[in-house]
Amino acid sequence: MSTPKVISILKRPAVFILTLTLLLSVVAPVAAGTGGAASGEGMPISLNHAQGPTDAAEMETFLDDLITRQMDEYHIAGAAVAVVKDGQLFFAKGYGYADVENKIPVDVETTIFRTGSVGKVITWTAVMQLVEQGKLDLDADINTYLDFRIPDTYPQPITLKHLMTHTSGIEDRWLESVTQNADELMTEREWLVANFPGRVRPPGEAAGYSNYNAMLGGYIVARVSGEPYEEYIQKHIFDPLGMTHSTVQPQMPADLLPFVSRSYTYADGAFQSFPDYLTQSAVLPSGFHQTSVTDMARFMIARLEGGFYGDESNEMRILEEDTARQMLTTLYTPDPRMRGTAYGMFDFTDNGQWVLGHEGYAPVMLSQLLLLPDQHLGVYVVYNSLGARDGGLTPQHVGFQRAFFDHYYPAPAVEPTQPPADFAERAELFAGFYRAANSHATTPEKVVGLLGGFTIEVTAPGDGTLLIPMEGLELRFVEVEPLYFRQVDGSFTLVFREDDKGNITHLFTDIQPQNGFVKLGWYETPGFNMVLIQVCLLILLSMLPVGVIRAIRNRLASRSARAADSIIFGICLLNALFLVGLAIWFRPMHPSELHSLSLTVEIVMGLGVLAGLLTPVALVYTMLVWKHRYWGVAYRVYYTLVTVAAVGFVWFLHYWNWLGWRY
Questions:
Q1: C-alpha span between 201 and 187 (Å, rounded)
Q2: Which end of the chain has the lower number of beta carbons within 10 A, N or C?
Q3: How buried is residue 523: exposed, middle or buried, by Cβ count under 10 Å (0-12/13-18/19+)?
Q4: Coil, strand, or helix at residue 259?
Q5: How far does Cα 570 stand from its chain's mean position?
Q6: Distance (Å, whole) CA 222 – CA 234
Q7: What is the C-alpha separation between 396 and 339, in angstroms, rounded?
């Protein structure tokens, strides 16, 4: 599963920022063995890279250098890449190890990697198979196909088109998606009902990438076809294409288990094998497919060649030609002047070449799928590690994609666009913070936005342009039409949306067609909230030693005064224990804790609730303190400040969905 990136965090909504340190501050070599082979080695070498790859030997030299450098820089244990061209496998090669401990090299034919969210492309292909059979209607209310009802939060129904383009308005969902305890596994229906993340905007209003969309899509495939999702994919996609090292079973079949690549993190100068986990069946369609890169090559060929795959021993069609061509067209765009989303893939157009693509992430791996329909070219790359750095390998337009296109399709010259003379007067209307529509709105995962995840800042440097950092790049845009902007020295565009009062409400960009962005109010910005939480915590924690000293010294104070002291001290102590509990019990990247919440966690969350319930009592005592003058003015002022800090902390926890059991 994955969600697109704005900053490095945005690629991985699963990584909670759940410790006290992260509430206070910004978070802050392997041998490249070959396990596969290049194909087409007899083709003549061409230096005319502007026409794309023409020689597999040249490509091997290029990718050997690129991927081995990436593996060293990002601490990747193993990787593989496959390239198809004109209906044939053009190149495939493995790098590093599928199993570091046992020194098993990556083999392109047999090593099985998780696809991450690239697997969603397979799910939407299955949906379109049923559409062309007349069993599904892309414009029908999805409740037509479900045996439970999506809530009528908004009057507009959600359709398969909305799911496929991530414009359903359904929030993302990761919690409880995997587990290490088989007793926690649920049926698809049970999980989807129990973990429905909620509708947070009307369908069609804005794209907001959500894994739950594909989960529903896969469940609908199973319901309509009468076959379990994993069996349907095996029977109607994997088997026909001869994808013999591919599966989407909840547990790896025994005959394929020896070929599965391990997953690795990197810490303390060594690779650490990521613990095994079980995936909830309902989650499989969102990106828990597993396949070798040459198997994925077969799928890419079918998608590029009108649904048809054929070699000397097999000819098979998984889609009718019209359907396959339809799936390569734009299904959604927030503005007709912008690139958008096709049928389950996003427009990654780069250096003047039309590209449809998808990124992938799952604990813990990275992948990217790129299709160039005009060139009949497809590229799939996968990495089996989440190394010391994880932010730059597979985001669209950077990392692997950037290197590949700059090498084979150099960017055409672009004449710089000049800003309008009066724009500087209006620039501040657009400046501010914008949060991606796929950010979590109702669950504790929203806290990722506190540290800048899911968030971009648009600034007006005063030269008639807007400056936007995105995907690790600093991009400048100029207004060419009202609310429509073009990159100064490139081809990306922006469109802003305003309300009936002329206030800017949304930002859309074809850098990330899978996500719209919503403008934040001042109280929602990371800067304000970081200052708020630091000030509140400083004041609240200061009461702990003060309260102990006062309890010892003021044993003869009135009962009411001692009660006032006890209440505020209790609030501060509970909040401190709440934060310590988070730091102890939430350790990112451990599936049993990240995705499945224990009773201990429930108790820790209850500490915050209890402190919140006592805070109104402290407000009452604050009024009594001043009315009856329990203490001197200095301590009354201090007591009031602590109470205000407690109120601020309650608001903070409520805003970031940490007040109560909101998951």
A1: 28
A2: C
A3: exposed
A4: helix
A5: 38
A6: 12
A7: 14
**Strand ranges for 313-411 from DSSP E:** 314-317, 346-347, 356-362, 365-372, 377-383, 385-386
Rounded to the nearest 5°, which phi and psi values hold at 399? 55, -130
Q: What are the DSSP calls for 355-366, one per residue? A: -EEEEEEETTEE
Please compute the mean of the pLDDT values over residues 560-583 and round it to a whole number: 93
Q: Which helix (H) or strand (E) holds 141?
A: none
Whether residue 92 contacts residue 36, with contact meaning beta carbons closer than 8 Å, is answered with yes
Residue 138 near residue 159 (C-beta atoms within 8 A): yes
Nearest to 71 by CA among 92, 91, 96, 35: 96
Q: Among 38, 9, 80, which residue's Cα sits nearest to residue 471?
A: 9
Nearest to 81 by CA among 512, 411, 404, 408: 404
Q: What is the b/e burial string over 349-385, where b = at least 16 CB atoms within 10 angstroms of the residue's CB?
A: bbbebebbbbbbbbbbbbbbbbbbbebbbbbbbbbbb
Listed as own residue / partner, the contacts of 307-311 with beta carbons closer than 8 Å and 24 or more positions apart are: 309/240, 309/241, 309/242, 310/87
Alpha-carbon gap, residue 464 to 180, rounded angstroms? 54
How far CA 437 is from CA of 41, 405, 510, in Å, comes to 46, 28, 14
* Euclidean distance between CA atoms 630 and 295, whole angstroms: 77
Measured distance CA(154)–CA(157) in Å, rounded:
8
Query: CB neighbours of 43 closer than 8 A, spacing ≥ 6?
Result: 54, 55, 56, 57
Average pLDDT (307-324) is 89
- The amino acid at 225: S
If you count them, how many residues does the chain have?
Answer: 663
Instruction: Mean pLDDT check: name the lowest of 17-21, 545-549, 609-613.
Output: 17-21
What fold characterizes domain 423-522?
Answer: Lipocalin (2.40.128)
pTM over 0.85: yes
482 sits in which H/E element:
none
Q: Which CATH number fits domain 8-28+31-408: 3.40.710.10, 3.50.30.40, 3.40.50.1820, 3.30.750.24?
A: 3.40.710.10
Nearest to 11 by CA among 279, 541, 394, 301: 394
Extents of the domains making up the chain: 8-28+31-408, 423-522, 524-655
